[in-house]
Amino acid sequence: MTTLINKKHHVFIRLPMAGMILFVVFYIIAAMQYPGGSYTFPNKMGFNLKDNYLCDLLDGQTINGLQNTARTYARMALAILCFSLMLLWVYLPKLFTVKNKGQIIMSVAGILSMVITLFLASEVHDIIIRIAGVFGTVALILAVFELYRDQYLMLFYLGIICLVLFLTNYYIYETELLLYTLPLIQKITFIFCLSWFILLNRALHKKLQVK
């Protein structure tokens, strides 16, 4: 029976990490396929790390009016990432020694954030960002608190950085203060958050002693 449980965990615990790696691969492909155009430089060719948002790759048309040949890869990447992180949020409470209701709220908020993010390519992009952002913030705060309480200090400090970056993105997005910096800050945030999620995934794998 224990062997069967371990095999089950072996499959599902490894999937989020694999999904995050696939997300990066598909998004790089999408960026290479992007015809061009950003809000700062509408007629500039190609995808620019400094000027383009990751969401630009999801649109049916580019900002300069061309058909977006990158969107298929970008939407596949988004779906893979969302389902991967949903699975991680499902399993994350197992990382902690003492179980409580806060972990359930954390898990549900994280899952809802990813479910809502799946619709990021829709015409109500701004609403999706705001709603998913609220659920995501709740999940991150609770996760960071639980990490501190269980003495996962490295993950706690990295989680604080991710939370600060996440809230910085949200603040700039809402206030438009220093908006020109947001595309680059967005990518820095993604790097930190994906790194954190991967480390969480590894810690969870070790905690469950999946061989």
From TrEMBL:
The keyword Magnesium does not apply. The chain crosses the membrane at residues 12-34, 73-92, 104-121, 127-145, 152-172, 184-204. Keywords: Membrane, Transmembrane, Transmembrane helix. This is DUF998 domain-containing protein.
